[in-house]
Specification:
The chain has about 100 residues and is an all-beta fold. It is built from no helices and eight strands. A four-stranded mixed sheet has the order 4-5-1-8, with no helix packed on it. It has a four-stranded antiparallel sheet with strand order 3-2-6-7, with no helix packed on it.
């Protein structure tokens, strides 16, 4: 549609820690609206990918990926800023975190 600066974006969140994780995505502090048909999340063992198709300018903002280790319940948070403007070209943002838990 005319509101779309680009067709889609995917934001990848990866943890190098071993183990399996439960993933959660927040947008500006609230749950990502997965009830929108254009928004979906693909979870793997150590990676979660948030995909937004048919982007709107209102999708700009701060996205936070949270991972909870399923064994010891340790939480990890990774944030990224998604900026949309008229001149935006196709982009894929990849965020990786190497977290050492010394406990």
């Amino acid at each position: 549609g005319p509101d779309n600066p680009q067709s889609s974006v995917s934001i990848s969140c990866t943890l190098v820690n071993s183990g399996s994780f439960e993933w959660m995505w927040k947008y500006e502090g609230s749950d990502v609206p997965v009830d929108r048909s254009e928004v979906w999340i693909a979870d793997a063992t150590r990676t979660s990918i948030l995909v937004i198709n048919e982007l709107r300018y209102t999708d700009s903002g701060n996205y936070t990926c949270s991972a909870k280790h399923t064994t010891d319940n340790t939480y990890y948070n990774i944030s990224t800023q998604l900026n949309l403007n008229v001149a935006l070209t196709a982009a894929v943002n990849k965020i990786s975190a190497h977290v050492n838990n010394d406990s």
